[in-house]
Amino acid sequence: MRTTVGIIGAGPAGLLLARLLHNAGIDSVVLESRDRAYVERRQRAGILEQGTVDVLREAGAGERMDREGLRHDGIELRFDRRRHRVDFPALTGGRSVMVYAQTEVCKDLIALQLEEGGPLLFETEALAVEDADTDRPRVRFRREGVEDVLECDYVVGCDGFWGVARAAVPDGRTFERTYPFSWLGILADVAPSHDELVYARHDRGFALLSMRSPSVSRLYLQVPADTDADSWSDEAIWDELERRFETDDDWTLRRGPITQKSVTPMRSYVHEPMRHGRLFLAGDAAHIVPPTGAKGLNLAVGDVVTFARALAHRTATGSDDLLDAYSATCLRRVWQAERFSYDMTTLLHTAPGATPFEDRLQLARLDRITSSRAAETDLAEAYTGFPIG
Questions:
Q1: Cα(282)–Cα(300) distance, rounded to whole angstroms?
Q2: Of 236, 153, 152, 244, whose CA–CA distance to 199 is shortest?
Q3: What is the pTM of this model?
Q4: What whole-number distance in Å separates Cα of residue 40 and Cα of residue 37?
């Protein structure tokens, strides 16, 4: 089997890349180890930056997002029993974000790829990337128990931190931080208790009120890093959420049946460079951010847009300049997102063993954001997204 671009992984990054290449007249093959049903129900991110929304629309994948997604023009910061709304459009010249789950993005892109694009092979396990430092890289894979080879001009690894693409990069540097807490996340069949996301800093720990739809709430609690989700009863979760979201007004938290519980570890990770020969890393294969800043999916989108533009430029002009600049171009955006995600995490979470001095510094930082238009604008610009490319 032969193609121009071999794409490993059919998450949103790999699927969007296939769509962008198709629109540019460049052929690709997508290899995905899981089946279609798994990919379409894999719960991950739910906040799309303005730039991501624009890219999906331009790619022809925005129709259902615009119909069913929830545009959000701000977030609420909650601390010391106080509430403060950050107005995105007023601070950023009109930018906003969209609540639209990763599962739905994948469904839309899968449908387009199967209808219009190149091969999308589910239940196909990539085993290794070979000859990445030559002009004929290969992906060895196994499908229906039979090993085969995909010969490519380029390989893009969108297969996550544990995938074979990252393992095929022989050198480089890694930068990482593991946080001493996790998120206990729930899905609940209840209408959200607020029409925008609420980020709550509390002495007992961080809490986040989010949503997947007008009838499904997504909420998170900061918990110790070794927490077992099943050790928390539904009632205990709701009671703790209620404590951490408490305010001095009459706001109340709606409760409902919890349909899913999971624990998400918190870490920051960057691999430099994001390229080896003709193998390019994208998304979690190259970088991971704590979810506090809602940047993971959006960073992956920035990576594949940068690659698609670079390859289209190569096809049109014969110049490798943009491909050669891929890693540096992506990393400028990656490190700004890492910085913002770290800032949001340390701003809102209660670290084990934190001193009263550190607690008061957190409150001082929040007071600064809520009393200074410049500080608030910095947060709004970062949250709605850094420029792509």
A1: 6
A2: 244
A3: 0.95
A4: 5
Contact indicator for 348, 292 with CB cutoff of 8 Å: yes
Determine the pLDDT at residue 171: 84
pLDDT on residue 364: 97
Q: First vs last Cα of the chain: how many Å apart? A: 32
Give the closest residue to 249 by CA, choosing from 52, 372, 76. 76
Residue 360, phi then psi, degrees to nearest 5: -70, -30
H or E element in which residue 221 lies: strand 216-224
Rounded Cα distance, 70 and 98, in Å: 6
Enumerate the active-site residues: 72, 199, 291, 295, 383
User: pLDDT (tens digit, 9 = 90+) per residue, 228-286?
Assistant: 999 999 999 999 999 999 999 999 999 999 999 999 999 999 999 999 999 999 999 99
User: Which 8-state DSSP code applies to residue 148?
Assistant: E
- Give tens-digit pLDDT for 77-119: 999 999 999 999 999 999 999 999 999 999 999 999 999 999 9
Torsion over CA of 81, 86, 87 and 88, rounded to 10 degrees? -150
Distances (CA, A) of 121 to 2, 33, 84, 132, 218: 14, 8, 47, 21, 31
Phi, psi values for residue 379, rounded to 5°: -65, -45
CA distances (Å), origin 382, targets 22, 294, 308: 30, 10, 24
Measured in degrees and rounded to the nearest 5, phi and psi for residue 249 equal -105, -160
